[in-house]
Recover the amino acids of this structure.
């Protein structure tokens, strides 16, 4: 695969959760790829339709070569972050912020650009109506799981304050939905919400994107605001902070503690007022242990810590979310699919959903493109069925249950080992801890419930289980 195609694939994958509109444009300004999220369904029917294969400025005539971030990126190869753009369609005016990345070939030539958009506002005949509102902030999080409902209640309280918040959850669990809810339920809701996936920023551009640049600071530099200035008064959401190197973490730590930033090449400090919300798709404690996350940075951005359970821990939500997305895609695609066939339902309930809610949504969307009946049948989810077939873990022979005295980590086992002579205290403590965790899991059969019984967070319990190699 050509290098620039790898870049496109990587950027599409990284930004698919944070985008509401996504576009890939080739070097000639022709739109090669366009995808909109459900939020864009609120736009007029004729907006953003049938754009593929057309010249960008023909599609959006109100833009010019000077005002279009995409054309600017094609010319200069620079990244544009959080720039506001206004587009019109009939009687409607659409305000959005865009982040534009260059797509660079192996020889350094600009092969194209990818544009990620977030909607701010839609106006009709002078009447403004925000795309997102506080009323629907938590309604978008569909659940009947007790842990998730409790988390929604916690978010309402946490939103009242400005404490830095760290959200941990596996890929696809909906971390940005909670970050947006924290913003929309806060006093900052009328100020900017700037989302940036740290994995999408090339290492050599991290500082300029966070801190901004001053004209003349280095060759080709222009005066540009960084992420902290762009989010001033509002919320800055930094996703996948686990991808950021520790040197950058140290610089950000200083900025966050002093609440001021100096642009690259600048001479004056600029004060900012921003709430920081960060997210990680890896266990923070493990990152600290591996030296990939500074502990001081972790404690600074994680004053409040929220843990999102994976979908496999929310069995009661699988069919609820399934129906939610079926209703959504029926409306979007003009279909009338009633639900799942019985066999497909059994498959959905048995699958572990390693990609979580995102995988579930994508599976349903894929089925809508194939299914011809009024139920989603196995035929339209063949990829999922084949993955289930590949999940061929060996069936273990049934063995007699151990007595309590035979369990690893039991006091009887420990006495026996001590009776043999010298022991490794650390190893014994690990065995005892593992025995306690196993017993808590036996009694509750749920990670969240076991964590509550042990008076620790589910995140901490998951980390301890991984460390002790417990399944």
């Amino acid at each position: 695969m050509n290098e620039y195609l790898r870049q496109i694939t990587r950027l599409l994958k990284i930004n698919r959760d944070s985008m509401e509109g996504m576009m890939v444009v080739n070097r000639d300004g022709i739109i090669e790829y366009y995808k909109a999220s459900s939020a864009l369904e609120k736009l007029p029917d004729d907006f953003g339709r049938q754009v593929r294969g057309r010249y960008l400025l023909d599609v959006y005539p109100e833009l010019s070569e000077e005002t279009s971030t995409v054309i600017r990126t094609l010319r200069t190869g620079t990244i544009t972050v959080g720039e506001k753009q206004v587009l019109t369609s009939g009687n409607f005016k659409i305000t959005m912020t865009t982040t534009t990345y260059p797509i660079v070939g192996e020889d350094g030539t600009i092969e194209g650009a990818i544009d990620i958009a977030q909607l701010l506002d839609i106006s009709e005949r002078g009447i403004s109506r925000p795309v997102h509102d506080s009323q629907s902030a938590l309604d978008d999080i569909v659940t009947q799981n007790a842990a998730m409902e409790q988390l929604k209640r916690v978010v309402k309280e946490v939103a009242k304050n400005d404490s830095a918040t760290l959200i941990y959850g596996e890929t696809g669990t909906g971390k940005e939905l909670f970050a947006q809810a924290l913003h929309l339920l806060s006093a900052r809701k009328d100020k900017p919400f700037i989302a940036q996936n740290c994995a999408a920023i090339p290492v050599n551009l991290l500082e300029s994107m966070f801190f901004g640049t001053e004209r003349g600071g280095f060759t080709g530099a222009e005066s540009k605001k960084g992420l902290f200035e762009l989010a001033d008064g509002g919320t800055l959401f930094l996703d996948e902070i686990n991808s950021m190197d520790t040197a950058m973490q140290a610089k950000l730590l200083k900025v966050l503690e002093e609440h001021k930033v100096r642009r690259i090449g600048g001479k004056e400090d600029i004060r900012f007022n921003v709430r920081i919300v960060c997210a990680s798709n890896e266990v923070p404690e493990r990152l600290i242990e591996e030296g990939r996350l500074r502990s001081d940075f972790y404690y600074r951005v994680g004053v409040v810590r929220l843990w999102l359970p994976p979908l496999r821990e929310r069995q009661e939500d699988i069919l609820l979310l399934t129906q939610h997305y079926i209703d959504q895609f029926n409306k979007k695609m003009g279909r009338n699919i009633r639900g799942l066939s019985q066999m497909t339902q059994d498959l959905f309930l048995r699958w572990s959903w390693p990609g979580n809610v995102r995988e579930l949504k994508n599976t349903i969307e894929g089925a809508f493109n194939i299914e011809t009946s009024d139920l989603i049948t196995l035929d339209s989810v063949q990829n999922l069925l084949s993955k289930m077939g590949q999940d061929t873990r060996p069936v273990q022979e049934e063995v007699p249950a151990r007595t309590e005295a035979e369990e690893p980590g039991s006091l009887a086992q420990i006495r026996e080992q001590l009776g043999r002579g010298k022991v490794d205290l650390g190893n014994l403590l690990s065995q005892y801890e593992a025995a306690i965790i196993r017993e808590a899991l036996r009694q509750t059969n749920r990670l969240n419930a076991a964590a509550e019984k042990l008076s620790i967070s589910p995140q901490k319990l998951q980390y301890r289980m991984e460390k002790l190699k417990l399944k």
Q: What stands out?
A: Confidence is low (pLDDT under 50) at residues 125-129, 392-406. The two ends are 37 Å apart (CA to CA). The first strand starts at residue 21 and ends at 26. Residues 425-444 form the longest helix (20 residues).
